[in-house]
Amino acid sequence: MGRKVGVEVSIAAADAVGLCDVDVVAAYPITPQTHVVEHLSELCASGSLDAEFVPVESEHSAMSVCCGSAAAGARTFTATSSQGLALMAEIVFIASSMRLPIVMFLANRALSSPLSIWNDHSDTMMVRDSGWIQVFCENGQEVYDAVFHAFRVAEDARVSLPVMINVDGFNLTHVIEPIEFWTKEMTQKYLPEFKPIHRLHPDKVVTMGAFGMPEIYTEAKMAQNDALLKSFPVIKQGWDELADLTGRKYSPVETYRTEDAETIILGMGSICETASLAVDQMRERGKKAGLVKLRLWRPLPVDDIKKAIARAKDVLVLDRAVSFGAANAPVTSEIRAIMYHESNRPNIHNVIAGLGGRDVTPDHVIEMLEMALADKTHGYNIFGVRS
Amino acid sequence: MAETEKNKVIKPIKNFAMQEYISSGHRACQGCAEVLAVRHVLKAIGPDMILAMATGCMEIISSPYPLTSWNIPWIHVAFENAAAVASGVESGLKALRRKGRVPDRDVTIVAMGGDGGTTDIGFQALSGMMERGHRVIYVCVDNEAYMNTGIQRSSSTPFGATTTTSPAGRVKPAGEMTWKKDMVAIAAAHGIPYAATACPTFFTDLQKKIQKAKEVDGPSYIHILSVCPTGWRIPPNKAIEYGQLAVDTGVFPLYEVEKGVWKLNRKPKELKPISEYFKGQGRYRHLDEKFTSEIQDKITEKWNKLVKFCE
Fold it and tell me: How many domains does chain A have?
């Protein structure tokens, strides 16, 4: 394989989009997404990428342009973050319902107010139920590889759904990481030309975006849910073939030192790298700790999660967003629901950490674990609150 | 109305398309001049087109799944983004054509919205589309209120008209107390190559303008007055006549702005008094003489300004 090059993760992601020979990029600037689209506009300006770069006047229009472009049968990319996602949210839901295979790079950032440009997962949890395929990444190489995978899955005729690549803002978007680049040949081998089942063109007339009366709406939503669930084997197949090509194996749920683990930490995104160091430290102290990393958030890999945590005594779920007034934070809510009917189920603990860019260190993770194990209320705790 | 009715034989437009691109059987109200305007717009362009439509009357009457009235490629995404969706279709096709993945021929991209979807909620997306220079014809079919949701006022509702959210009362005796937004001037201020007003009563003028817009290399904006019998409280057989009156009283002048040059397309020797236009319209029924004369003054003033502009 090729050698690794130190490069900023946002730049690498933009290069990956370029290698995919994207046709249309529509985006509006928002921190910390900017480096991705800046680099794409450079690639277009220099002529090294033959694409239409549409510098829209809002994120709402960014997603709307993406809908039009994908409906015309063009490979389509956008990137945003936080408030940008909130503004485009209306069209985010429509994009998946119209089965438009758009790929979005989401630099995860806290929602206002108070205004914060720093990382947590409140933005992506806002559109949790939007019907997009949602993937999380832990490091730069994962982000880079995820771009090729996202286009392949989204545009697959069996799927035809948009894909959101979640990348922790600053913690991951702005760091320089060693990344092994793909070649044009590899990309062409892995990613076939986008051939939509229907496209807007006078040669074959279609009506897209009709309205649904009560006698059809339920069926439409059922079909949409089916489509998202059925994307699961295609997502896995995409990762398997990516492994054949690069030697890097990705799975919906990944485990680290969980074989004999009594205590498991479960998280999503870059916090998993921190948590893996905490696991190592605990192992050194003779504690049987392990880590479960949830890469695929939608469609939720229910059976894989069950398998990964069933034998543990305690599971600590690290959430990066608050679901105000709810019984749990979003990820915990799912994990507890999945395990409810299992006869052998671990104690599931919930800690919310790293809100609005608050640093989380391996020591913090150990502290959270101790805090959670001591708490018998089965509620949730927000870690690191200063009184 | 008798004085406006003339049994004129209208000369058929050259190459008037016999093909229909919106089929009958749609669910528009009786006497709807908006769907008539749409029919003429599509006829003027022909089959090689794609239409991106905003949520509104025209969308809701034409696309109850699994039925469709459209004989052309048609997409509806949301209310406020027809201009942005059309920008995306145009950009996508441009890239695909350059890369040889779709047939190498011109396809006209049209975006269409009502007055709410254009002058209010879709205003920003439209401005963005025009500023970025997408080759899209934007058509606003203006029936002067949110008719689809039950006749609520928009920024295109004229002074003095009552709607369900601008009722006439003791505090607001005129009903709508603000003046209609001047969209063509706003569009022209973007420096786009072509902007115009039209009305389906004058359908040859309308079709000519659409064909002009089709030929320009860049964005174009056509603002069409679409008389709404339901919302204006007039009989369904009067929409064409009221379109004529709106033009002949100077309430809705027909003009175009081509590469910055303003031109009046219909200049009556003398404007008819607006009272003739107001008469019979339920939405103006409450207006007293004071308001009518105030509105007349404003219309005359605007007309004179426009005539000067077009000299």
Answer: 2
